[in-house]
Amino acid sequence: MNQAVPSKLPHIGTTIFTVMSALAAECGAINLSQGFPDFGTDEHLAALAYAYMKKGMNQYAPMPGIMPLRERIAAKTEALYGYSPHPETEITITSGATEALYAAIAAFVTQGDEVIVLEPCYDSYMPAIELNGGKVIGVPLIAPHFELNRVALAAAITPCTRAIIINSPHNPTGAIMSQADMLWLENLLSNTDIILISDEVYEHIIFAGTHESVLKYPRLAERSVVISSFGKTFHITGWKVGYAIAPAPLMREFRKVHQFLTFSTATPLQYAIAEYLQQPERYLEVSSFYKQKRDTFCQLMQATRFSLMPCKGTYFQLANYSAISSEPDTTFAIWLTKEIGVATVPVSVFYRLPKQEHFLRFCFAKTDETLERAVERLAKL
Ligand code: GLN
Predict the structure, then answer these.
(1) Nearest to 242 by CA among 92, 86, 94, 122
(2) How far apart are CA 313 and CA 169, in angstroms?
(3) Is the dihedral of CA 106, 234, 273, 222 positive or negative?
(4) How far is the CA of 186 from the centre of ligand 1 (A)?
């Protein structure tokens, strides 16, 4: 075969996280780009995974996930959000949130459907919509604080709208949705068949108030697939264990895709997390842990000419660099990696039509020493 292979995603290249991490490695730069911790997870959690491997939990897990883990997730969800998903029919363990997002989109989006995303948005949403024949409708959040644009969101809804994807706490901006936003959304969607896909992977990394899960809002919960990930919560992004919660009729369709996408998720890791979840402090303490990191990073950044945006959740800090350069953000991010030795993520890549707002995203899920070394370099600018 010598002709060019037609691409289903002609305008998509390699994900920015891979591009920037590879460039950081090539240049020996400090990597504050891709979102992952550079410190270890709790040794006890790692020991649990090994213990379950030695116990022989090494074959396929049940397709929807092992029951003890689903039960613990149900208990956590009930305790935090007052919503009790049925472990048998309403919770599925997935191979990371990425798989859950794809399965949800593939389960519900068909040719010609419109799916609304709030831009900037996480990079996997748009390709997943397009691969399933959907049309991406981008509704911008209001910069510089990236609040929900209610007027624009209401105006974007048409008879073809199949789903809306929301994400709070929000990657890449660190903004969060308020109770008022959720109540407004409840009204907006009443009397529609629109499905809400709510990406809540940073539910345990929040610094302002409490997390407004859609599961706290019954009229939203009844139409939602809520997605989370243990990667963020327990510093184990490489384990790729996430989950989805949805009412049984939606979950039935979700599982039809999940069973042929990955079938099931790593068995010993599921058992380890299930046991680890027995102590709620383990996830309840994550916000204060990262708040300290955020504060340390922001304090250090005072020595630079970057201007920081409020970060209310996630482990990402947005910074405006207009005082330093007027280059487009991708050019500036590459230059910063190569010449200054600090890798970041340019925010324009989180838009369908790249916007030039001169923002970079810094990941502060790093040791204090890494953050200090990075800012020492940035302070030279
Ligand atoms: N979610 C992480 C980020 O935003 C990266 C995940 C990935 O590399 N796919 O940086």
Answers:
(1) 94
(2) 5
(3) negative
(4) 29
CA of 344 to the centre of ligand 1 (A): 12
- Domains of the chain as residue ranges with CATH: 16-41+284-378 (3.90.1150.10), 57-281 (3.40.640.10)
Pocket-forming residues, ligand 1, beta carbon under 6 Å? 17, 34-35, 171
Closest residue to atom 4 of ligand 1, CA basis: 35
In tens, the pLDDT along 370-379 reads 999 999 999 9
In the numeric block, which tokens belong to residue 221? 């919960």
pLDDT score at 1: 66
Please write down the long-range contacts of 280-286, taking CB distance under 8 Å and 24 or more positions apart.
280/76, 280/79, 282/42, 282/234, 283/76, 283/204, 283/233, 283/234, 284/204, 286/204, 286/205, 286/233
Token pair for 170: 């929000």
State which ligand 1 atom lies nearest to the alpha carbon of 124: 9
pLDDT of residue 39: 97
Residues 194-237 have pLDDT tens digits of 999 999 999 999 999 899 999 999 999 999 999 999 999 999 99
**Nearest CA residue ID for atom 2, ligand 1:** 35
User: How many CB atoms are located within 10 Å of the residue 321 CB?
Assistant: 22
pLDDT in tens, 230-288: 999 999 999 999 999 999 999 999 999 999 999 999 999 999 999 999 999 999 999 99
Mode of pairing for the β-strands spanning 316-320 and 359-363: antiparallel
